[in-house]
Amino acid sequence: MLKDSATESLHGVPAGFQHDAFVYTSDEEFVRLAVPFVHDGLAAGEKIVAVLPPERIALLSEALGPARDQVDFIDMTVAGSNPSRLIPLWRDTIARQPDHAVRGLGEAAYAGRSAAEHDEVQLHEALTDIAFADDRFFRLCCAYEASVGIDPTATHSGGEALADKTFRTALSDVPDQAERWEFGLPDLGHVRQWMNAQASSYGVSRDRLDDLALALHEICTNSIRFGGGRGTLAVWTVDGALICDVADRGRIDDLLVGRVLPPLDGIGGRGVWLANQLCDLVQLRSGDDFTQVRLHTRLR
Q1: How large is the C-alpha radius of gyration of the chain?
Q2: Which secondary structure element, helix H or strand E, spans residue 154, and what is its range?
Q3: Do 160 and 224 belong to one domain?
Q4: What is the secondary structure of 45-110 as a DSSP string?
Q5: For a 10 Å CB count at each end of the chain, is N or C smaller?
Q6: Average pLDDT over residues 15-44
Q7: Domain range for 198
Q8: Average pLDDT over residues 279-297
Protein backbone atom coordinates (compact mmCIF):
# COMPACT_ATOMS: atom_id res chain seq x y z
CA MET A 1 0.00 0.00 0.00
CA LEU A 2 1.23 3.51 -0.77
CA LYS A 3 -0.58 6.48 0.71
CA ASP A 4 0.20 10.02 -0.47
CA SER A 5 -1.28 12.93 1.51
CA ALA A 6 0.24 15.67 -0.63
CA THR A 7 -1.58 17.99 -2.95
CA GLU A 8 -0.61 18.00 -6.63
CA SER A 9 2.43 19.99 -7.73
CA LEU A 10 2.06 23.16 -9.78
CA HIS A 11 4.43 23.85 -12.69
CA GLY A 12 6.90 21.34 -11.30
CA VAL A 13 7.05 22.98 -7.85
CA PRO A 14 5.80 20.92 -4.88
CA ALA A 15 2.49 22.31 -3.61
CA GLY A 16 3.13 21.38 0.00
CA PHE A 17 4.69 18.93 2.39
CA GLN A 18 4.36 15.38 1.10
CA HIS A 19 3.87 12.70 3.75
CA ASP A 20 3.60 9.20 2.30
CA ALA A 21 3.61 5.69 3.75
CA PHE A 22 3.81 2.11 2.62
CA VAL A 23 3.22 -1.21 4.37
CA TYR A 24 5.45 -4.16 3.53
CA THR A 25 5.20 -7.84 4.38
CA SER A 26 8.72 -9.04 3.54
CA ASP A 27 12.28 -7.86 3.01
CA GLU A 28 11.76 -8.17 -0.74
CA GLU A 29 8.67 -5.96 -0.65
CA PHE A 30 10.48 -3.36 1.45
CA VAL A 31 13.25 -3.20 -1.15
CA ARG A 32 10.78 -3.12 -4.04
CA LEU A 33 8.98 -0.10 -2.56
CA ALA A 34 11.91 1.77 -1.02
CA VAL A 35 14.47 1.65 -3.83
CA PRO A 36 12.37 3.49 -6.49
CA PHE A 37 11.55 6.18 -3.92
CA VAL A 38 15.27 6.76 -3.35
CA HIS A 39 16.18 6.59 -7.05
CA ASP A 40 13.47 9.13 -7.93
CA GLY A 41 14.90 11.53 -5.38
CA LEU A 42 18.46 11.09 -6.61
CA ALA A 43 17.33 11.69 -10.19
CA ALA A 44 15.67 14.94 -9.06
CA GLY A 45 18.85 16.11 -7.32
CA GLU A 46 17.31 15.87 -3.85
CA LYS A 47 19.13 15.21 -0.59
CA ILE A 48 18.24 11.67 0.53
CA VAL A 49 18.19 10.76 4.22
CA ALA A 50 17.12 7.29 5.38
CA VAL A 51 16.32 6.93 9.10
CA LEU A 52 15.78 3.20 9.53
CA PRO A 53 16.48 0.31 11.89
CA PRO A 54 19.89 -1.30 11.25
CA GLU A 55 18.53 -4.34 9.39
CA ARG A 56 16.61 -2.09 6.97
CA ILE A 57 19.69 0.08 6.45
CA ALA A 58 21.64 -3.04 5.47
CA LEU A 59 18.93 -4.19 3.05
CA LEU A 60 18.53 -0.82 1.37
CA SER A 61 22.25 -0.18 1.16
CA GLU A 62 22.85 -3.51 -0.57
CA ALA A 63 19.95 -2.99 -2.97
CA LEU A 64 21.12 0.50 -3.97
CA GLY A 65 24.62 -0.61 -4.89
CA PRO A 66 26.97 2.30 -5.66
CA ALA A 67 24.09 4.77 -5.23
CA ARG A 68 24.23 4.07 -1.49
CA ASP A 69 27.07 6.58 -1.23
CA GLN A 70 24.63 9.37 -2.11
CA VAL A 71 22.32 8.52 0.81
CA ASP A 72 22.73 9.53 4.45
CA PHE A 73 21.79 6.59 6.69
CA ILE A 74 20.77 7.15 10.33
CA ASP A 75 19.95 4.43 12.86
CA MET A 76 16.32 4.93 13.86
CA THR A 77 16.73 2.82 17.02
CA VAL A 78 19.20 5.41 18.30
CA ALA A 79 18.12 8.75 16.80
CA GLY A 80 14.40 8.02 17.08
CA SER A 81 14.21 5.72 20.07
CA ASN A 82 12.16 8.50 21.66
CA PRO A 83 9.83 9.49 18.78
CA SER A 84 9.65 13.06 20.11
CA ARG A 85 13.20 13.59 18.82
CA LEU A 86 12.28 12.91 15.18
CA ILE A 87 10.68 16.22 14.24
CA PRO A 88 13.79 18.07 15.51
CA LEU A 89 15.96 15.63 13.54
CA TRP A 90 14.11 16.37 10.29
CA ARG A 91 14.09 20.11 11.00
CA ASP A 92 17.86 20.02 11.47
CA THR A 93 18.26 18.00 8.26
CA ILE A 94 16.26 20.55 6.28
CA ALA A 95 18.18 23.46 7.80
CA ARG A 96 21.47 21.88 6.72
CA GLN A 97 20.27 21.67 3.09
CA PRO A 98 19.14 25.20 2.22
CA ASP A 99 19.82 24.67 -1.49
CA HIS A 100 18.29 21.20 -1.90
CA ALA A 101 14.92 19.59 -1.52
CA VAL A 102 15.04 16.85 1.12
CA ARG A 103 13.56 13.39 0.62
CA GLY A 104 13.34 11.32 3.79
CA LEU A 105 12.67 7.63 4.25
CA GLY A 106 11.83 6.57 7.80
CA GLU A 107 10.62 3.62 9.82
CA ALA A 108 9.66 4.89 13.26
CA ALA A 109 7.18 2.09 14.04
CA TYR A 110 9.75 -0.67 13.93
CA ALA A 111 9.15 -4.11 15.43
CA GLY A 112 10.19 -4.55 19.05
CA ARG A 113 8.91 -1.22 20.36
CA SER A 114 6.71 -1.17 23.47
CA ALA A 115 3.00 -0.37 23.25
CA ALA A 116 3.66 3.09 24.73
CA GLU A 117 6.36 3.74 22.13
CA HIS A 118 4.02 2.75 19.29
CA ASP A 119 1.39 5.12 20.71
CA GLU A 120 3.93 7.94 20.60
CA VAL A 121 5.01 7.01 17.06
CA GLN A 122 1.43 7.45 15.89
CA LEU A 123 1.15 10.81 17.65
CA HIS A 124 4.50 11.82 16.14
CA GLU A 125 3.32 10.91 12.64
CA ALA A 126 0.16 12.97 13.05
CA LEU A 127 2.13 15.93 14.43
CA THR A 128 4.52 15.72 11.48
CA ASP A 129 1.75 17.05 9.23
CA ILE A 130 1.54 20.12 11.47
CA ALA A 131 5.27 20.62 11.92
CA PHE A 132 6.07 20.61 8.20
CA ALA A 133 2.83 21.84 6.67
CA ASP A 134 4.59 24.77 4.95
CA ASP A 135 7.75 22.92 3.86
CA ARG A 136 7.33 22.68 0.09
CA PHE A 137 10.73 21.08 -0.40
CA PHE A 138 10.44 18.25 2.09
CA ARG A 139 8.99 14.85 1.30
CA LEU A 140 8.83 12.04 3.86
CA CYS A 141 7.89 8.42 3.22
CA CYS A 142 7.32 6.13 6.22
CA ALA A 143 7.71 2.36 6.03
CA TYR A 144 5.55 0.08 8.19
CA GLU A 145 6.15 -3.63 8.65
CA ALA A 146 2.77 -5.38 8.43
CA SER A 147 3.45 -7.51 11.52
CA VAL A 148 3.52 -4.37 13.69
CA GLY A 149 -0.22 -4.02 13.05
CA ILE A 150 -0.44 -0.25 12.54
CA ASP A 151 -2.50 1.22 9.71
CA PRO A 152 -0.75 4.48 8.71
CA THR A 153 -3.71 5.86 6.75
CA ALA A 154 -5.06 8.12 9.51
CA THR A 155 -1.69 9.68 10.32
CA HIS A 156 -0.69 10.25 6.68
CA SER A 157 -3.81 11.91 5.30
CA GLY A 158 -4.20 15.12 7.24
CA GLY A 159 -3.21 14.01 10.72
CA GLU A 160 -3.99 17.34 12.41
CA ALA A 161 -7.37 16.23 13.79
CA LEU A 162 -5.94 12.96 15.09
CA ALA A 163 -3.01 14.80 16.69
CA ASP A 164 -5.32 17.20 18.51
CA LYS A 165 -7.63 14.40 19.71
CA THR A 166 -4.73 12.27 20.95
CA PHE A 167 -2.95 15.19 22.63
CA ARG A 168 -6.15 16.22 24.45
CA THR A 169 -6.93 12.70 25.75
CA ALA A 170 -5.45 11.61 29.08
CA LEU A 171 -3.03 8.70 29.24
CA SER A 172 -3.98 5.42 30.88
CA ASP A 173 -4.69 5.51 34.61
CA VAL A 174 -1.84 5.38 37.09
CA PRO A 175 -1.79 1.82 38.53
CA ASP A 176 -2.93 1.27 42.12
CA GLN A 177 0.51 0.00 43.18
CA ALA A 178 2.28 3.22 42.15
CA GLU A 179 4.05 5.32 44.79
CA ARG A 180 2.56 8.83 44.97
CA TRP A 181 3.78 12.23 46.12
CA GLU A 182 1.88 15.54 46.20
CA PHE A 183 4.27 18.46 45.74
CA GLY A 184 4.49 22.23 45.68
CA LEU A 185 7.39 24.67 45.50
CA PRO A 186 8.73 23.92 49.01
CA ASP A 187 8.77 20.19 48.20
CA LEU A 188 10.97 20.17 45.10
CA GLY A 189 14.15 19.27 46.99
CA HIS A 190 12.36 16.48 48.86
CA VAL A 191 10.88 15.17 45.60
CA ARG A 192 14.34 14.91 44.10
CA GLN A 193 15.70 13.08 47.14
CA TRP A 194 12.73 10.73 47.21
CA MET A 195 13.02 10.09 43.46
CA ASN A 196 16.73 9.34 43.73
CA ALA A 197 16.04 6.78 46.43
CA GLN A 198 13.20 5.21 44.44
CA ALA A 199 15.20 5.03 41.21
CA SER A 200 18.24 3.59 42.95
CA SER A 201 16.12 0.89 44.58
CA TYR A 202 14.85 -0.11 41.12
CA GLY A 203 18.37 -0.43 39.73
CA VAL A 204 18.66 2.75 37.65
CA SER A 205 22.35 3.45 36.94
CA ARG A 206 24.05 6.56 38.35
CA ASP A 207 24.28 8.31 34.97
CA ARG A 208 20.67 7.56 34.07
CA LEU A 209 19.54 8.59 37.54
CA ASP A 210 21.13 12.04 37.07
CA ASP A 211 19.38 12.42 33.69
CA LEU A 212 16.04 11.40 35.16
CA ALA A 213 16.44 13.66 38.19
CA LEU A 214 17.12 16.69 35.97
CA ALA A 215 14.21 15.89 33.62
CA LEU A 216 11.84 15.33 36.54
CA HIS A 217 12.90 18.57 38.22
CA GLU A 218 12.14 20.49 35.01
CA ILE A 219 8.71 18.91 34.63
CA CYS A 220 7.77 19.39 38.30
CA THR A 221 8.91 23.02 38.08
CA ASN A 222 6.62 23.46 35.06
CA SER A 223 3.70 22.14 37.13
CA ILE A 224 4.39 24.76 39.80
CA ARG A 225 4.86 27.61 37.30
CA PHE A 226 2.07 26.81 34.86
CA GLY A 227 -0.14 24.16 36.50
CA GLY A 228 -1.59 25.94 39.49
CA GLY A 229 1.36 25.79 41.85
CA ARG A 230 1.05 22.11 42.70
CA GLY A 231 1.28 18.69 41.09
CA THR A 232 1.17 14.96 41.71
CA LEU A 233 4.07 12.60 41.06
CA ALA A 234 3.45 8.86 40.67
CA VAL A 235 6.20 6.27 40.20
CA TRP A 236 6.04 2.61 39.15
CA THR A 237 7.78 0.05 36.97
CA VAL A 238 6.45 -1.84 33.97
CA ASP A 239 8.09 -3.89 31.22
CA GLY A 240 11.62 -3.14 32.41
CA ALA A 241 11.14 0.63 32.67
CA LEU A 242 10.74 3.09 35.53
CA ILE A 243 7.77 5.40 34.95
CA CYS A 244 7.44 8.87 36.50
CA ASP A 245 4.04 10.48 35.90
CA VAL A 246 3.60 14.18 36.72
CA ALA A 247 0.06 15.58 36.65
CA ASP A 248 -1.32 19.05 37.33
CA ARG A 249 -4.32 21.27 36.49
CA GLY A 250 -2.70 23.36 33.76
CA ARG A 251 -3.25 23.35 30.01
CA ILE A 252 -0.72 23.35 27.16
CA ASP A 253 -1.96 24.82 23.88
CA ASP A 254 1.07 24.09 21.69
CA LEU A 255 0.78 20.58 20.23
CA LEU A 256 4.46 20.69 19.28
CA VAL A 257 5.72 21.52 22.77
CA GLY A 258 9.06 19.83 23.39
CA ARG A 259 9.59 19.11 19.70
CA VAL A 260 10.65 22.63 18.71
CA LEU A 261 13.48 24.23 20.70
CA PRO A 262 12.00 27.38 22.29
CA PRO A 263 13.88 30.66 21.89
CA LEU A 264 16.16 31.63 24.76
CA ASP A 265 13.85 34.51 25.68
CA GLY A 266 10.70 32.38 25.44
CA ILE A 267 8.49 31.38 28.37
CA GLY A 268 7.96 27.67 28.86
CA GLY A 269 8.68 24.67 26.65
CA ARG A 270 12.34 24.20 27.48
CA GLY A 271 11.65 21.73 30.28
CA VAL A 272 9.76 19.36 27.99
CA TRP A 273 12.45 19.73 25.33
CA LEU A 274 15.12 18.83 27.87
CA ALA A 275 13.12 15.85 29.14
CA ASN A 276 12.88 14.55 25.57
CA GLN A 277 16.66 14.60 25.30
CA LEU A 278 17.23 12.90 28.67
CA CYS A 279 14.55 10.21 28.86
CA ASP A 280 13.98 7.07 26.79
CA LEU A 281 10.37 8.07 26.17
CA VAL A 282 8.22 11.06 27.07
CA GLN A 283 4.44 11.04 26.80
CA LEU A 284 2.59 14.34 27.16
CA ARG A 285 -1.14 15.00 27.10
CA SER A 286 -3.02 18.19 28.00
CA GLY A 287 -6.68 19.16 27.97
CA ASP A 288 -8.91 21.88 29.41
CA ASP A 289 -8.09 21.13 33.04
CA PHE A 290 -5.14 18.76 33.05
CA THR A 291 -1.59 18.24 31.91
CA GLN A 292 0.11 14.87 32.23
CA VAL A 293 3.78 14.17 31.49
CA ARG A 294 5.01 10.57 31.73
CA LEU A 295 8.77 9.96 31.74
CA HIS A 296 10.10 6.48 30.89
CA THR A 297 13.60 5.33 31.85
CA ARG A 298 14.77 1.81 30.97
CA LEU A 299 16.21 -0.10 33.88
CA ARG A 300 18.79 -1.85 31.68
Answers
A1: 20
A2: none
A3: no
A4: T-EEEEEE-HHHHHHHHHHHGGGGGGEEEEEHHHHTSSGGGHHHHHHHHHHT-TTS-EEEEE--S-
A5: C
A6: 95
A7: 179-298
A8: 97
Closest CA to 214 of 250, 181, 251, 244: 244
Confidence of residue 238 (pLDDT cuts 50, 70, 90): very high
Task: Tell me if 193 is assigned to some domain.
Answer: yes
Q: Is residue 243 exposed (0-12), middle (13-18) or buried (19+ Cβ within 10 Å)?
A: buried
Chosen domain end from 140, 167, 194: 167
Cβ atoms of residues 65 and 264 within 8 Å: no
**What residues are paired with 49 via a beta bridge?**
72, 104
3-state DSSP assignment of residue 159: coil
Q: Is residue 286 part of a domain?
A: yes
**What whole-number percentage of the chain has pLDDT above 70?**
93
pLDDT at position 4: 42
Residue 266 has a pLDDT of: 59
Nearest to 220, CA basis, from 266, 172, 187: 187
Calculate ∠ Cα 205-211-213, nearest 5°: 95
Count of CB atoms within 10 A of residue 116's CB?
18
CA distance 172 to 190: 27
Nearest to 282 by CA among 259, 251, 265: 259
Q: What is the DSSP string of 8-39?
A: PPBTTB--S-EEEEEEESSHHHHHHHHHHHHH
pTM of the model: 0.92
CA 154 to chain centre: 17
Q: Is pLDDT above 80 for 299?
A: yes
What whole-number distance in Å separates Cα of residue 155 and Cα of residue 128? 9
